[in-house]
Amino acid sequence: xxxxxxxxxxxxxxxxxxxxxxxxxxxxxxxxxxxxxxxxxxxxxxxxxxxxxxxxxxxxxxxxxxxxxxxxxxxxxxxxxxxxxxxxxxxxxxxxxxxxxxxxxxxxxxxxxxxxxxxxxxxxxxxxxxxxxxxxxxxxxxxxxxxxxxxxxxxxxxxxxxxxxxxxxxxxxxxxxxxxxxxxxxxxxxxxxxxxxxxxxxxxxxxxxxxxxxxxxxxxxxxxxxxxxxxxxxxxxxxxxxxxxxxxxxxxxxxxxxxxxxxxxxxxxxxxxxxxxxxxxxxxxxxxxxxxxxxxxxxxxxxxxxxxxxxxxxxxxxxxxxxxxxxxxxxxxxxxxxxxxxxxxxxxxxxxxxxxxxxxxxxxxxxxxxxxxxxxxxxxxxxxxxxxxxxxxxxxxxxxxxxxxxxxxxxxxxxxxxxxxxxxxxxxxxxxxxxxxxxxxxxxxxxxxxxxxxxxxxxxxxxxxxxxxxxxxxxxxxxxxxxxxxxxxxxxxxxxxxxxxxxxxxxxxxxxxxxxxxxxxxxxxxxxxxxxxxxx
Amino acid sequence: xxxxxxxxxxxxxxxxxxxxxxxxxxxxxxxxxxxxxxxxxxxxxxxxxxxxxxxxxxxxxxxxxxxxxxxxxxxxxxxxxxxxxxxxxxxxxxxxxxxxxxxxxxxxxxxxxxxxxxxxxxxxxxxxxxxxxxxxxxxxxxxxxxxxxxxxxxxxxxxxxxxxxxxxxxxxxxxxxxxxxxxxxxxxxxxxxxxxxxxxxxxxxxxxxxxxxxxxxxxxxxxxxxxxxxxxxxxxxxxxxxxxxxxxxxxxxxxxxxxxxxxxxxxxxxxxxxxxxxxxxxx
Lengths: 536, 283
What we know:
The complex is a heterodimer.
Chain A: H1 18-24, H2 28-56, H3 67-102, H4 110-129, H5 155-183, H6 196-227, H7 241-258, H8 261-275, H9 282-295, H10 311-323, H11 325-339, H12 348-371, H13 373-379, H14 383-413, H15 419-446, H16 460-489
Helix pairs in contact in A: 2-3, 2-4, 2-16, 3-5, 3-14, 4-5, 5-6, 6-7, 6-8, 6-9, 8-11, 8-12, 8-14, 9-11, 11-12, 12-14, 12-15, 14-15, 14-16, 15-16
Chain B: H1 2-27, H2 37-70, H3 86-115, E1 122-129, E2 132-137, E3 142-146, H4 150-155, E4 178-181, E5 186-192, E6 197-201, E7 206-210, E8 216-220, E9 226-232, E10 244-250, H5 252-264, H6 266-282
Parallel strand pairs in B: 1-5, 4-10
Antiparallel strand pairs in B: 1-2, 2-3, 5-8, 6-7, 6-9, 9-10
Helix pairs in contact in B: 1-2, 2-3
């Protein structure tokens, strides 16, 4: 199977050069790169907003920004990080890796692929432009709860338009991924021979298609409430503000798993590689992922236990939420079992994958705590929740993305990244991120609410520590940018099989992967399948 | 030999992780146990669940770090061939389910107790405004507004030159406290006049949203006299961080005296309230 991809014929048609090459490209690798670069830019921008937040919270009293701007920063930080950094990063990884991992020459719908990327910069241009409008950026939290979100000025219409664009982009990306995975797998690549990254992305794509239209519906109702005198969410007109929260979180909870399932996939690729041992419990991983996806549709109201739901409703959502711990636990046990009696080495991708398992587990365990309704009456809307979701989103999703970037950078650029700098980046990030987020558990338990620009002096010490951790973590990411740039420009040449324990079709093509791969599909059977487990 | 090694390292890892966890818990703050039967139930529930997840975390991480320590290439470890075990998978599916059931039972009991708002001896309606609270005592016909106190409000302005550390109970003090009797079952009705707020005093053990067009209810029974402080917990606009909740629990006798004072002085209280409303509309 190694000779199937030896066509290095980049120049068989002369495409446009310079900027036009990137604007008109339909190549999955170039679009993947565009997504990843865009995502990195948004990560730095969203991080800069977080720095403003942490600077204001450095000590009690208002020093730097006024409360309106602070609220704009918390709102924009979330929107930029979720829709601009994490989701496009996963779509970028999917663009690069899905065709390479299933043995397809490109994505199924290359022109739509181009369009789904190029919507994004404009969507974010519109969203970010609200910062410079007279009524300012949205300041009601990324959840845009009415009636508060309806109080803003006309920049609100721009925000909703931007969200619609992001939704369209996501849906098109998801359709493309599903079409590619279901139709373009190499002969012999049966569903249960697919790498886990492919499985998790397939399931994620179905989640995206299911819930992005729900978000579009929710924000469209906000739009008509704001500008066309409807009363979907206005009690005075017969509507219900809580209904918005139900609709929003029917999108919002699957959205949470949209941001973590591909992370599970990445980690499930990396741990077997560096443990030099097959992934433990491959089929149970697939079923666990599917169960988590199904459960994500029936737990949404655990984000809103304090709105005053009927007892039966609260109990249902509590039980359903607790059940998620079971398939999630199975995944964690499987990763640990994969490491068990392996032959491990600890290159940067493996370090990030291990940190992911540890820190995501901490976030998962605090997730069990916040599922307990009576206790959630205390935790809800405090820094405890902020700590919880940053453990699953930063040390979960973002760490997995970084693990994936270090893992596949040699394949993308043909060069090994600087391992020494990678390790510095890892330790610096891992220590500082815990200094940043762990004390926030204490703050929440002690009674500090979320989304406040100023606080009582009893919260001063842990906010100070958290801010110091935040600045250090932010600085570490500039090092990450430098490591990526350095790797793209040169370095030790990477072999096709960049990691000696790596399995899978992507390692059969040369490094850097030529523009066109798998013009003739490779043959896949049990001898080359990534996962041999349980194929009967 | 291999198995013994793993057991010894595993136990050492459990010991190390236990010490680290103990340190992590020792330096931090915890949830207050509070002053009501419900808040103590919640605190207990919190501690039970925290204990369970901590033990699970220590065991999982101990296994993982044992593997990281022993099963590394640099120690000459050869990778095993196994990639599946039905028995292990059944065990780690069933045991978590049992643990979850064990957590769900007390949680359900406490929740059912919280939802039962019957038998109230006193009803207080709380209305959220941007950015203050209104308290209406339905039996005693008392009504007043409660906003951030003057000292905190002066200190919190950008460039005020006043250090928050010099203000007593910075951001956690109001002009008019919500005075309630101890050992009395109080039903609290929550609503809002503008956007969604959330009324929260950690020592009472719960928060509940105040939603325009809806009335939520909750109850409390404060056992110890004292002043209990909290804040609005739902983002409600620019001054969300500046609308504290302060509950002053006094003996039933003192409460009667306070009521008498309020009702005798009703005109003054109303005037204060409307004065604040004027100030609000000027902002």
